[in-house]
Amino acid sequence: xxxxxxxxxxxxxxxxxxxxxxxxxxxxxxxxxxxxxxxxxxxxxxxxxxxxxxxxxxxxxxxxxxxxxxxxxxxxxxxxxxxxxxxxxxxxxxxxxxxxxxxxxxxxxxxxxxxxxxxxxxxxxxxxxxxxxxxxxxxxxxxxxxxxxxxxxxxxxxxxxxxxxxxxxxxxxxxxxxxxxxxxxxxxxxxxxxxxxxxxxxxxxxxxxxxxxxxxxxxxxxxxxxxxxxxxxxxxxxxxxxxxxxxxxxxxxxxxxxxxxxxxxxxxxxxxxxxxxxxxxxxxxxxxxxxxxxxxxxxxx
Length: 301
What we know:
8 helices, 6-stranded mixed beta sheet
């Protein structure tokens, strides 16, 4: 009888060890999935695009989310490797830092966290300051970015222009392309829209798809759509998705536009799953990504 009990205990330990190995292996696989950066490509039809901008490219990276093993040097190296693509415009979509799961569980001190993450973001911009984009480097800031130090100074020191509820004119050969960055207050979208005519070529970037309805329901000065391409992040594509559910809390609009392209309004709108992660550097059924977007006035299939 004792021998049988010993065999059962030994068998139980083997089962427990197998389960532990499977759990660790699965977590490791999710960590690898989070660390592999995918380059996504798209050609976007903009009928108002001026001839000088035909074929020009935008490298769009959002949700850097520095934290944990996602250090400023590591994130910057990932961006800098994409210099080989020779993008015409570099565009960053906000959410540059994020608390780790350990920070959250330890109920981190907000003031100290703000100082530390502000430093991390400053280091990141320092490492990417030599990135070359002939038509300029631009960025927006999310609400979370604004409470962690002087994001504008850090951006400008690295050669980026911060678009905060304003627009940037990119001139080339007498033609113009406009970049618009939405701030936290969407009540100003109507004022921004009124600065354009429906024939202007406008790319708008927001920190969250929650601002898509405001983009689509406001009109240009001469009526009609004023945005030709809309870009957003923040949702991480759900980050860890299982059986159609996400570990991240998302509101109704974020669930509707949680990932990918949407053209229901006639205006192409992209929500990227971003580069980094929230809480833990793990992903399941989502991917870390950046987008290389080619602009064209020629209809695509």
